[in-house]
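Example record

One chain of 451 residues, shown exactly as stored in the release files.
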Amino acid sequence: MPEPTLFFEDFTVGDVLELGTYEMTEAEIIDFGRRFDPQYFHTDPQAAVNSPFGGLIASGWHTCSAWARLWIDSVLSRADGRGSGGMQVRWLEPVRPGDSLTATVEILDTRPSSRHADRGTVFIGCTMTNQHGRVVFTAHGRGLMGRRHPAGESTAHPPAPDAPGSASGDKDAIEVQSADGVKLNLRVMGGSGPDLLVCHATGFHGLAYRPLAQCLADRFRVWALDFRGHGLSGAAPDGDYAWSGMGADVAACVAAIGGERLYGFGHSMGGAALLLAERSQPGNFAGLFLYEPIVLPRGFFDAPNANPLAAGARNRREVFNSRAEALARYSSRSPLAVMRADALAAYVEGGFVDLPDGRVRLACSAETEARTFEASGGLPTEEASSIDVPATVAAGTVVNAASNPGIFSQAIAEALPQGRFLSFDDLGHFGPLEAPGIVAAAAISDLLDVG
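Predicted structure tokens for this chain:
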């Protein structure tokens, strides 16, 4: 085995690696199909004519394997690879005999291991296009890479380990105090341009929106807060998670960011919190993009135990043996399995605190998440008419849970004096975490009036 020449440090976020081209032949399609995926449209050219595809096509696993061969030949054969944490794959177009498939990989993120100084994780987005320029395959995954210089070797003072009982440290963050004394974690997510504050959904945290922030960073300087009781922020006084406190958290972060022009991106509860902050202090925001904000008709959740999500939250498993175990569980189960791989990895990374025995516990406890759900309805739809700010209210068309807050989005847009409704086909309530690039492009267009 040759000595590696590529290490963790050689992968830079934003780089696009050209992997080359793979020629798909009929003989290879049939051979692969017979061995691994013996469906008639992969193995029998004559019978395949009467299939939904109108002819012989390659197995999706064959396409995936072709991409893997190009990735290995171009990159991994030279790298100090330590294995993979898995991939999420999508097949978008049939691959036919004679197709010429060109593969690329974008480096989405790199994270040094907090436990092992000799390695780090590289998050990648993969694409294959055919000779007509049509995308036939996409995937998102992560791989472990050895480090050329393990952490601490090139510095006079190695970084201190994370303290037991705390979440992973965040060097690109500032502490902000909310109106009632809660200490909030406000991250600088990078980028340049006018400031944009990202506000997360119940049970999540700002770091989970890192892939979205990366897509927004070409046009904005992106910030993301952790609401009280979530992520690295402190708990609410007396365990009171009324959403007026979330609005106060937004207002405190607005003051900390300063500047002349500020925009807001809110998801679910985060959208409602942005509107609450704008209502309390009109003119804070130059524009808002709200994905399925929880702004409900008055009295919708007034009855005891009316919000079914609260009961589900209280039943969440809080402690795992490791973040890897949590990631494996979430990636195979509803509802988090719909998230893009890098967003789910970011959620797990920042969503747990380390315990003294080596295990990890949810940063937002099951009880905190449940109480936050129970406080839904802090801003009734009927009061949205008093919030006069340019705002896009977006919703997906896919229902992937018992609750479907997207059904209220058009009514919210109509209630806002400067509201506009936008629909995303094939996305559900987790849209900003399912397809951050698509949602970010729409937000840039609407907020900056481009495109």
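Notes: Residues 60-74 form the longest helix (15 residues).
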